[in-house]
Specification:
Layout lengths: L7 E5 L3 H13 L5 E5 L2 H8 L13 E4 L8 H10 L8 E5 L4 H9 L4 E4 L4 H18 L6
Helix pairs in contact: 1-5, 2-3
Length: about 140
């Protein structure tokens, strides 16, 4: 199956191995979406604002966000996205290693649409990401842009 260019997922993840597993989950699950990857919150904002090398970037339908990253972490990124009238409607799903209740409460209070703890087992990680993709791509109806 080929990717559906009308559904775009922005992955904000600094760990190359985790980014690879997310991409693998999308490929193995035959999820009909274009997955775009950036390494931190600063680059994600460049992507969202279509600046520099991301001048032709599509508007994402969903953002998968790691919390602990250099330069701008996921909490600050989420805070800025939800404060921006042009971006706040984009669902942001946190995909993190943190199982801390304080992180969970903080990101939901900032407007996250979901909070998924990354499993340590590779097969379980791929399965969870595939389920996230299936939910947002095939089940949820998002507003037109």
């Amino acid at each position: 199956m080929t990717a559906n260019p009308s559904f775009n997922v922005l992955l904000v993840e600094d760990e190359p191995a985790d980014a690879h597993l997310v991409r693998l989950a999308f490929e193995e699950g035959r999820l009909l979406a274009c997955l775009h990857h950036v390494g931190d919150g600063v680059e994600a904002f460049t992507f969202l604002q279509r600046e520099g090398m991301h001048a032709d970037a599509p508007a994402p339908d969903v953002i998968l966000l790691d919390l602990n990253m250099p330069r701008m972490d996921g909490r600050e990124f989420l805070r800025r996205v939800k404060a921006d009238p042009q971006l706040r409607a984009i669902p942001v799903v946190v995909l993190t290693t943190s199982d801390a209740e304080s992180d969970l409460a903080a990101v939901y209070s900032l407007g996250a649409a979901g909070y998924i703890v990354k499993p340590l087992d590779v097969d379980e990680f791929i399965s969870k990401v595939r389920a996230i993709g299936e939910y947002w791509i095939t089940m949820v109806r998002l507003p037109a842009r």
